[in-house]
Amino acid sequence: MDTSLSTPLDPATPADSGTLVLAVPKGRILSELAPLLARAGIRPAPDYADENSRRLRFPTDDPALDVVRVRSFDVATFVAHGAAQIGVCGADVLMEFDYDQIYAPLDLGIGRCRVSVAEPAELAGRDDPSRWSRVTVATKYPNIAQRHFAARGVQAEVVELNGAMELAPSLGLARLIVDLVQTGATLKANGLMETEVIAHVTSRLIVNRTALKTRPEVIGGWIARFRAALASASAR
């Protein structure tokens, strides 16, 4: 029987033997990440920063390192399962999935935002959350939302959405939303108000634990390079 599709990847021996893979998230974080990568000595192919590029895997000026560009939620999955050995991932994703295969040695201090609860502005301050026993919540963070409300003795009925969370209360889909907030402008534009911050979020350097154990010099070397890049940035 062919087991090639069911055999998990060995983080120590990726598809291109000897090549390390760094997973980074698509979107706005790329521009914030670019100076840090440069200080760490990582220079991906020019189309890496082009959101219109259809390529997902990019060589760098280091023949032993490739960069893959994936959805923010998928970075942790790629690293946890050994498809990538290093990654840059928001703390929100780590909170949501809580992979035990991931070690997060460094807070990179970029991608600052927060996971927050929001509700229609006309209801904010008029209801008493301490009297709730159950509430409907639209979110892409079901685990974070359920843990948050369970800690308050409230059962959260979660409606999972991957976007347009702000529409849920006005269309009767959910009373509240739990979402990632940066400036709050989108909430305000859709008649919502941020009522509680669950967690402040920054991006973290993450590594696969097995890769760290089997290739400690290589993985440890990259951690040291990112640490030095952070120190260089703070010294400016």
Automatic annotation (TrEMBL):
Regions crossing the membrane: none
Protein's recorded name: ATP phosphoribosyltransferase
Subunit composition and interactions: Heteromultimer composed of HisG and HisZ subunits.
Gene3D superfamilies: Periplasmic binding protein-like II
EC numbers on record: 2.4.2.17
Domain ATP phosphoribosyltransferase catalytic: 71-226
InterPro entries: ATP_PRibTrfase_cat, ATP_PRibTrfase_CS, ATP_PRibTrfase_HisG, ATP_PRibTrfase_HisG_short
